[in-house]
Write a structure and sequence with these properties.
The protein is α/β, with parallel strands linked by helices. Helices cover 43% and strands 15% of the residues. It has a four-stranded parallel beta sheet.
Length: 201
């Protein structure tokens, strides 16, 4: 029996959303520092630059609220629209964000009238939402999030970032450098290639 096209799911920040260019200038202005995107992630800004978590949360809130300033990652919208129109499946986003209103506003600005869904995990593991929704392939960038998904047998396309370099390809994780590589893998699924030929078995 040919393999059915799996349902893809997508993390938002630094996968679909080019979030750091919105966040970093706010933090730099507030603290009078310079932050190198090459060596930093949102989760480690507070550790590397000794910024109190409560202050960083305020900066994140402000960045998320700047809906008109935040841009998608290069190639993300093009892939997502192609994926929907060819597969007939809705766009499923699963995020650790807490600002629902501005997140929904941003998604509408990029994807309306394409059907999409967004799930806010609100402190729970992403694997819970992924499995509940029936997502089989999840695009993620976060290192700990990727490991948690893989431990729960969710296959992850890991967006290559400076903060996830220590994670290796495996039966459940395949590193991709950009949306062009996600597209190439999607095309292999369109040809009904089995999981084992795409992920390391």
């Amino acid at each position: 029996m040919p393999l059915e096209m799996p349902l893809f799911g997508f993390d938002l920040d630094e996968c679909v959303v080019d979030f750091l260019p919105a966040l970093i200038p706010i933090v730099e202005e507030k603290y009078g520092i310079r932050i190198s995107r090459e060596y930093i992630s949102r989760s480690s800004i507070e550790e590397r630059y000794k910024i109190p978590k409560v202050d960083l949360v305020e900066c994140i809130d402000l960045a998320i609220s700047n809906v008109d300033y935040i841009k998608p990652m290069f190639g993300a919208v093009e892939f997502l629209l192609k994926y929907h129109y060819e597969s007939g499946k809705p766009l499923v986003f699963i995020t650790s964000r807490w600002d629902k209103g501005n997140t929904i506003k941003w998604l509408n600005s990029c994807f309306f009238p394409v059907p999409w869904e967004v799930y806010f995990v609100e402190g729970h593991f992403k694997s819970e939402a992924v499995k509940k929704r029936g997502v089989k392939i999840f695009v993620e960038d976060h290192d700990e999030g990727t490991l948690e998904l893989a431990e729960n047998r969710v296959r992850v396309l890991l967006m290559d970032k400076p903060w996830n370099k220590e994670i290796n390809d495996s039966k459940y994780v395949k590193r991709v450098k950009d949306w062009g590589e996600v597209l190439a893998i999607y095309k292999r699924f369109r040809k009904r290639e089995p999981y084992a030929s795409i992920f390391n078995s």
